Amino acid sequence: MNRREARNPLWVSRLIYPYRVVGMALGGLSVSAVLYELHAPWFAWAFMVAGCLLWPHLAYWRSSRSADPTRAEKHNLLIDSAIAGAMVPMMHFNVLPSTLLITLTTVDKLSTGFRRLWLHSLPVLVLGGVASAVLLGTGFRPLTSMPVLLACLPMLLIHMIAVSVGRYQLIRKVTKQNRELDRIRRIDTLTGLSRRGPWEEQAQQLLANSRPDRQDCILLIDVDRFKQINDQHGHGAGDATLRELAERMRRVMRPHDHVGRRGGDEFAVLLPETTQVEALAIAERLRREVEQIRLADYPGVIPTVSIGLAVAPAQPTQPDTWLDIWLEHADNALYRAKDRGRNVVMA
Ligand SMILES: Nc1nc2c(ncn2[C@@H]2O[C@H](COP(=O)(O)OP(=O)(O)OP(=O)(O)O)[C@@H](O)[C@H]2O)c(=O)[nH]1
After folding, report:
1. Which chain positions lie within coiled-coil regions (predicted)?
2. Is the CB of 227 under 6 A from ligand 1?
3. Nearest atom (ligand 1) to Cα of 236
């Protein structure tokens, strides 16, 4: 059961109800045209009225009273097929309305998204036809006249439009959800920064477009003794520190720099078209900015960061190791910064 079903178990029936009312009524119009031509007996008319006009309301009433409305609705959809099947011999197999009823009722099953429902509906459709032929009798007049054809058009047109609108809405919803999934995949929920994977994709792209007349740099940033912050002030203080640090990074970096969280208390920044001297100045500005952090809820937390800087190396013989080599240089610089006593920038 999904969240929507849990909130309102009748949602499937509510969704289908207006479509069934309109669809069955339009189906009834084309059946009526044939029954009129055939001078059909009263019980055929009675069956048409019951199936096309009363059944949609009865179906909704059935599922609204059921302990499992979705299951009841699946049964209703099968009954729709049985009714459509029953209409075919009643219309003496008139080609156009019979084909439309069979096709559209099967398409409806497909568009509900219920697994294999359309397949299960086929024997039910045949059964409805056989039962109707046995109980109400039948004949064979397959030719479709112009009045019957005209009576079929509303059903055909409105069904096509309804299915297209439904499909359009579905595509929009799926596109929106895909975009949201992509955002979740790319963005770290705690800090709102890029996750490791997307950040590395950007870095790879920067390397792929690198030019000999240009320097690109990266910074690896690690919070000093972060474990102590967690241990002494709690995990909430640690999280608040990471969030504030991300905020300060956004403030210090330029619009075209790319900031990411590599995991835990480690961050990375891509500085495109930046010389080592410029990158050192940016890193130093960030280091000093972090020293200023004071968290209202955790006044005892005074974080600092160590920063390792590396200029993009020349392309190695194996280009797929290029980023790894670059990160290794920055990591070595970060290691030296930690070794120096922390709260410093090393290149
Ligand atoms: N609050 C919080 N803590 C985290 C998160 N992710 C990782 N950590 C913790 O961050 C700490 C990282 O500590 P380390 O990088 O090993 O070491 P450190 O204490 O920062 O020491 P140095 O890096 O040597 O200065 C670990 O205790 C992790 O449990 C997170 O999302 N929130």
Report:
1. none
2. yes
3. 1
Nearest CA to ligand 1 atom 24: 225
| CA neighbor of 218 nearest in space, from 316, 342, 319, 325 | 325
Q: Which of 82-96, 164-178, 214-228, 233-247 is least confident?
A: 164-178
**From the CA of 202, how far away is ligand 1's center (Å)?**
25
Q: Which atom of ligand 1 is closest in space to residue 224's alpha carbon?
A: 25
DSSP tag of 190:
T
Q: Give the tokens for residue 71.
A: 């299951």
- Per-residue pLDDT reduced to its tens digit, 50-102: 999 999 999 999 999 999 998 999 999 999 999 999 999 999 999 999 999 99
The SS3 of residue 94 is: coil
24 and 163 in a single domain? The answer is yes
Q: Are residues 72 and 213 in the same domain?
A: no
Q: Is the CB of 278 under 6 A from ligand 1?
A: no
* pTM for the structure as a whole: 0.67
ipTM above 0.95, yes or no: yes
Domain-embedded: residue 191 = no
Structural domain count, the chain: 2
Probe ligand 1: pick from 195, 226, 307, max atoms within 8 Å of CB?
A: 226
- Is residue 190 a part of any domain in this protein? no
- pLDDT (tens digit, 9 = 90+) per residue, 146-201? 999 999 999 999 988 988 888 898 899 999 999 999 988 899 999 999 999 999 99
Are both 143 and 172 inside the same structural domain? yes
Query: Cα–Cα distance between 130 and 80 in angstroms, integer?
Result: 15
Indicate whether 136 and 285 sit together in one domain. no
**Alpha helices in 113-145, H assignment, sequence order:** 117-136
Q: Is 304 in the pocket of ligand 1 (CB under 6 A)?
A: no
